[in-house]
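Dear support,

We are seeing what looks like truncated structure output for some complexes. This example has two components. We would appreciate it if you could run it in full and send us the complete C-alpha cell output so we can diff it against ours.
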Amino acid sequence: MMEFRREDSGTVSAMFEPIEVDLLRQVTSQLLQLLGSIDADDAAMLAQPAVRRLLPDAYPDDPEAAAEFRRFTADGLLEGKLANAAAVLGALGDDEQKDDPVHDPLPVPIVLDEQQVQSWLRTLTDLRLVVADRLQIDPHGMPHLDDEESHVVNDIYNWLGMVQESLVYAIDA
Amino acid sequence: MPQIDESTRVREAISLDRPWVTVVWDDPVNLMSYVAYVFRSYFGVTAAEAERLMLQVHNNGRAIVATGDRESMERHVEAMHGYGLWATLDRAEE
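Here is the complete output from our reference environment:
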C-alpha cells in the first residue's frame, strides 16, 4: 500500500494492492458480523473481552450506573460502528479481484471523502481492538497468542495500524 | 422504597456540587497519533494541548480530558467510545 495523500479536492487517496483490498474486505465483513451479533442486554456476551472493549464500562466502580449508561448508549454506538464498517466496505467496492493468470493485478485506488475518512479511522480502531483481543495483547502491547495463525494475525494487526497511521497523517498534514 | 443510610445521604449532599470528569485510559492498542487526533478534533484543543493530553494518557495511564456536569461528561464518554477510546466517568477530586 502507498501512503494516503490529501488531494486538492479535499479527499484523501491511496493505492492498495488487490490482496490488501481483499484482506480489508474480509476482516471488515467479520467485524460487521460480530457487531451485528452483539446484544447489549446479554450479560454473557458483554463478558467477552472484545465486546467489553468495544462497549467499555463508563462507570468502572458502579455496575448499576454502568448498566444504565450502556442501556442508553449501546444501541447507538453499535449502529454507528455498523454504519462505519459498512462505509469501509462500500469504499472498497463490491467485486472480488478476478484472477488473471497472465498479468499481476493492478493496484486499486482508494479515494475517501471527509465522512468516509471518519468511518475508516473508527473502523480501523474497532478492527484493531478485536484483533488485539485475539492476539492476547498485554498492557505493554506485546502479543501472547501462540498458535499457527499468530504470525498472520500479528501481520494483519500491524498492517491495520499502518493504514490508520497513514490516514491520520494525511488528514493532519 | 430502598433505604438510604444517613451517611450516604450526607455524602451525596456534600458531593452535589462536585463536578464530573471524563477520564481517558491508556490502552496498548490505540496509536498515539490517533489518540492525539481524537482529542484535537473532538475537543477542539490545540495540537500542543492534544499532544500533552495524549502523552499524559500514555505515561500516567490516564488523563482527565474534560470536567463539567454529569450529562456533558456522559456525552463525551459516549463520543470517546465511538472513537474506540477507553473512557470512563468519575467525580472530580476534591
